[in-house]
Structure formats: C-alpha cells, structure tokens
Amino acid sequence: MTFVAQAGVVVAALVVAAVVGAPLVGWLLRRVEPGTETPGLLRGGMWIGVLERLAIAGAVMAGHPEAVAVVIAVKGLGRYPELRDTEPALRGETAERFIIGTLASFVWAAACGAAGAAAIVALE
To answer: In terms of pTM, does the model score above 0.85?
Structure first.
C-alpha cells in the first residue's frame, strides 16, 4: 500500500472517530436518561470528546493502545474538581452522565482505531 493510501485510511478513521462520535454519544446519553441534561456543568465536553477520540483512535492505529490510559488519566484528573464541586443534588446524575459519555466515546474511538488499523493491514 502506498503512503498516500495509508494516510487516507488514517485520516478517514480519525474523522469518523471524531465527527461521528459526537452525535453518537449524544444520542446514547439521550436514550439512557432522556431530559436530564445539566446546562453549565461539564463545559467543553464536546471539544474534549473530539480530542479524546482523536487521541484514542490515533494511538490504537499507531499500535500504542497503552496511550489510552494517559487519555483516561488526563480526562479524569481534569474533570474531577468540577465533578467534586457539583451541587450535591446533581452530583450523582452528573457523574453518571460523565462516565457513560466517556465510556461510549472511548469504545467508539477504539473501534474506529481498530478498524483503521485492520484496513491498513488488509490493504498491504
């Protein structure tokens, strides 16, 4: 496979992981707990999600799935203060949405990365 074809597969997998992941995770959260959004909490979630999916899919395709642990650690440490300081009445709901959204996002990104890696191997 040529470098251009490999690059095309990598870019396609990253785009699908990042772009399709946002509405997919949102759809899942609406199915799990409809009408429970908490405006103002966990700001920047969409952008964080896009970046985490890019990092995870890229790490899996590069053959370094252990880098996913770094993404998990950074996200958890970055969000912990906000989750801890959430109003007690909303804390459980907010933490649950964070965990469900994060796991859905990570699974989608890992699947896209694995599919991209498999496509590269299949086209060689």
So the answer is: yes
